[in-house]
């Protein structure tokens, strides 16, 4: 779990748990079919859900590409 806080100088500090990787500098944006867009936008935790789904898909594809080499 990422921990963010302000230090005594007012600077924002981000601490990662061991083994966690920092997030990319910019957000990825995609347009989706309306029905899928509505479904995702109605999720209470949509950012976390999208992150988990995309990471799982990318890791599976990376693993499959590694095995086929």
Structure characterization notes:
With 69 residues, the protein is of the alpha+beta class. Helix content is 45%, strand content 12%. The chain contains two helices and two strands. The protein has a two-stranded antiparallel ribbon with strand order 1-2. Strand 1 and strand 2 (12-15) form a beta hairpin. The radius of gyration is 17 Å and the shape is flat. The model has no long low-confidence stretch (mean pLDDT 91).
Shape: flat
Q: Total number of helical segments?
A: 2
Spatial arrangement of strands, main beta sheet: 1-2
Beta-strand percentage?
A: 5-15%
Mean pLDDT: 91
SSE inventory with pairings:
Blueprint: E1 3-6, E2 12-15, H1 34-41, H2 46-68
Antiparallel strand pairs: 1-2
List keywords for this structure.
single chain, 69 residues, flat
In short:
Helices cover 45% and strands 12% of the residues.
């Amino acid at each position: 779990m990422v921990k963010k806080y302000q230090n005594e100088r007012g600077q924002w500090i981000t601490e990662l748990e061991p083994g966690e990787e920092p997030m990319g500098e910019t957000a990825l944006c995609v347009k989706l079919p309306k029905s899928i867009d509505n479904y995702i936008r109605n999720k209470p935790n949509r950012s976390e859900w999208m992150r988990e789904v995309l990471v799982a898909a990318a890791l599976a594809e990376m693993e499959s590409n590694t095995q086929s080499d």
